[in-house]
Every structure is written in C-alpha cells, then in structure tokens.
Amino acid sequence: MTTTATRRWIFWLALIGFASWDLVHSEPVNVRLEPPIIASGSGLPTQGGHCAMPK
Known about the structure:
Layout: H1 3-25
C-alpha cells in the first residue's frame, strides 16, 4: 500500500470508530425540544441555540 492509501484507510477507520463510539455513549436527541431552524414569524425566540434549551 502507498502512504496515501494507508492514511486514507486510517482516516476512515478513525471516523467510523468515533461516530460509533459517539452513538453508543451519547444520549438520544429529543427533537421535540429542539427549536426550529428558521423561527421567523413563528412567535418563537430566534436567539440562542439548542444548547440553551432546558433539559
């Protein structure tokens, strides 16, 4: 294998490994608590992100 191909395999294995680890160890996202992406005209506050929502 060439160096570039080896680095490519290492990158993809690390990325898939991290995504798998994250899926197993993180809490599921409750989409009902997430604010809409576009809240224009809906009456909901447009400032603050989803991390500002109470749990």
